[in-house]
Amino acid sequence: MPMRVTADDVARAAGVSRAMVSRAFTPGASISVRKREHVHRVAQTLGYRPNLIARGLTGQRTGLIAVVVGEISRPYEAWLLEHLVKALSAHGYQPLLLAVEGANLTEMLDHALAYQVDGAIVAAGSVSREIADRCRASGAPLVLIGRVLDQGGIDAVCCDNREGMRLLAARLAGQGRRRLAWLGGTPDTFSDQERDQALEAALLDHGLTLTARRRGDFSQASGVEEGGWLLDAGLDLDAILCANDAMALGVLDAAAQRGIHVPDALAVTGFDDIPAAALGRCALTTIRNPVNETAQAALRLLNARLQTPGLAAQVVRVDVALIERISA
Length: 328
Fold this sequence. Notes:
This is LacI family DNA-binding transcriptional regulator. This protein is α/β, with parallel strands linked by helices. The chain has 12 helices and 12 strands. The strands form 3 sheets. A 6-stranded parallel sheet has the order 2-1-3-4-5-11, with helices on both faces. The chain has a 4-stranded parallel sheet with strand order 7-6-8-9, sandwiched between helices. Strands 10-12 form a two-stranded antiparallel sheet.
């Protein structure tokens, strides 16, 4: 098995000191363009790659950003991850992907901090004050996506859940829908809590209340199961609002299995506007939760925190929009 090429090997081959090799691979270090290019050419010939972990141990930036996500098999999470990775790469960062599925978020972030990451973007799990303080103590900025800590003090990006539910409630009320059900997601999820509370308040503005409630796990399969329960319960529903698009697509499947015509007999709405929402025989009326804007906002917060650690924490609320399609 071939030995790994080291900085000492590059120094000998290039006829320079080891310190010169280090400067050649350190952005902003004092070294002439000609010398830097020479060292890089020799390193490329030898197959050398700088050790980012070792760089972090010397207090230099590694360029690594931990990206902590939930179940990437779910459409919205995968879609968001795609845009996050593109945004980070375009700005010269290297994303270190950590999937929380079946793992403890605190352990995941501890693992990431051991790699001397420059920062962390967390779009999964319940982030506690302990986790936030641990990141801060390490010098690695933390940016949250899709949740805002009650205690404040942490940069976060989240869509305007309240406005989204107001728009959906107004559309359904305007169509004369009166017997509505809510299909929520997992109860400890920030977005689910905000959307649930906002929906109740918005319906009251139209003199309406929910006829029924069920809870899934944000998956399409749970939409089929829980949507089927709602449709079989004899509630005479004329609308089902879902906490995300995946569950709404499942409800559409459940309605089709029972021969229930959407939208004449039943309106169905989602939230997120994933690509699949526009496909199929019954395109989904939903709220656009823009992933590109979310990824770019998270990157701006991260850059600002890296450049000025003492900045006051910011919460960015990304604008949403009602996307009107066939289902409602």
